[in-house]
Amino acid sequence: MGAGAPGSGVEGEVRPRRGRCSGCLATHVLLPVTCLARRADAVAVIGEAVGLAAGGLGARRVAVAVGRAPATVRGWLGRLAGRAVRLRAALAVRLRAVAVDPRVPEVDGGLLAGLVALVVAVRDAAAGRWALPTLSAWELVSFVTAGGLLLPAFLPEAINTSPRLAG
To answer: What does the pLDDT look like over 103-116, one tens digit per residue?
Structure first.
């Protein structure tokens, strides 16, 4: 688990700083890849929970293992299960974009197991192509989804951050 932010009090919990723009008077938060938007827990904690659930543990046992409330863990897992098919498709596109010879991993064990295998495959492909020695698989997912992995309105199809070229 990652270390919490100063003053957060809980291991793996984060509390990013906010700043008000003097031009537009809006509050802005720039999240590091160790965070997901609107989540107090580090992406490493959430990723560990997803990995344990993909391995067959139930939400209560996962909650005990990561030191979080069962309702919190059920929320993470439910949100990911609801969008796992679309998220896997979006990550498969990313795998194809970064891998020299992409192979989407075939996994028995359900949607979350397939999602975890694809997350690891994308991270491994990206690490093989670029120097990413300290970027974990779930930090890469946080980066690719712009921190929106667990947002209510997040659509995996929207993770492309560059516009399409005309023509």
So the answer is: 777 777 788 898 89
